[in-house]
Amino acid sequence: MKQVSKKLIFTIGFSIIFLLIIITVKLPHKIKSPCRFVPQTEWLLTQVEPDKFSAKLVLNDSNKVKKFTLLQFNREDFLQFSLLPGIHQGKEVSKGEIIGQLVSFDNHRQLANLTGELMKAKANWKILNSGEKFSIQKEAIQSLEFAKEELKLFEPQIERSRKLLEQNLISQQEWEIADAQYTLLKLKVLLKEARAEVTKTGGKTETLQVAEAEIYRLENQIAVFEEKISFETIRSPIDGVVTDPAQQNILCQITKMDTMIAQIPIPSRQRKYLKVGQIVSIHNFENKIFLTGTINTIGNNARLINNSPMFIATCLIDNKSKTLLPGMIGFSKIYSEKTSILERLKRTLIIYFNTRFLKQ
Which domains does the chain have, with CATH numbers? Predict the structure, then answer.
């Protein structure tokens, strides 16, 4: 009887000690997962459509686009893009350095036309302001008739463009160009009328005001086209390396290589153990080196990877040695808070039963 009591006491004592151990003793919790290296910052120049180009600066540590520029042109057949001769894959470029030229011959043609119109408008204003008459009035009248005929021939075209705009068959930009040409022709008629009148009576205040307004309008249009043409000079927005584009429609890709991002997929059941600032140890297979970093961001939108919901955590890795390259892979260990043995047992049982349930 005493022997039974001793065994019972021993069993109870051992059970209590065991329970205390699994409840109170906490062990370091590691989250293990493969990872992929991507640059922290990269810049992409992409041909979205034959007449549309986009330039965007991507921050991979936060999955955000910092800067986006969309360029749209009227004539795709008048476009030409080329990198500078010295720009090639592996070339290091500095921020602000010219790397290529995107030339719209249509923009240059329209700028040349507007410059010519401005010179004529200024010459006409000078004549009106001085009151000087043409030696032959017939020439002024013929020029006026020609301008009126040109306006008359363009009116069906502007009406057709208006209907196409209402049916969304042309872009707003195409309509604005057509409307600007129509306005220019109307103003040209007014100027020709003023010129014909000045050969008889000299310039009037109202006529001078029309001529000045025409000069102001042309100068504004020229400024707009000069700004458009300034965008045709492509400069690198970052210090980086010209890399091989991942897609065919990417014309140029520049990668900032001194800092890389390890993208780590985390199973949904493990996400609650993650915190920003936790230490990460990474083994890079290609270079056979071990790297350390800290958790920078934790995604809150799950992605389906191999039929399992995964949250993407990112880790900043110093890469001034340029050892890591975009697309390389590794294996990561994230050191999170310590958890009790009981918590680990519960998690193991949940995973086991979930796996058995999914298999059935």
Answer: 28-40+255-359 (2.40.30.170), 106-230 (no CATH)
